[in-house]
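The pair is quoted verbatim underneath.

:::
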Amino acid sequence: MQEYERQILVTSEGPEFPARLKVIRLPASWYAVIWERPERYATFSQDRTEKNGGHEHMSNEAFLARVRLVASFSFGIDFEWGQQ
């Protein structure tokens, strides 16, 4: 299991706003939350399938790019990487 936590800037919900991205990467799935405050957050995940090819072979950079793609494509949440 790997955990990632990054500052992000959400760009898809009107004015840009800072948030935190937390991702838990497991061998066959991953889970993520984009957190601004208790009243405003989103969760999403992805399981390994034949179609998506899984993620266990990906570098950290490629994996986080996949998380970003899923957030945008599946949930309409676009973001930029913030300062760490």
In short: The mean pLDDT is 93. Residues 7 and 83 are 6 Å apart (CA to CA). The chain is about 20% helix and 45% strand. The first helix runs from residue 60 to 75.
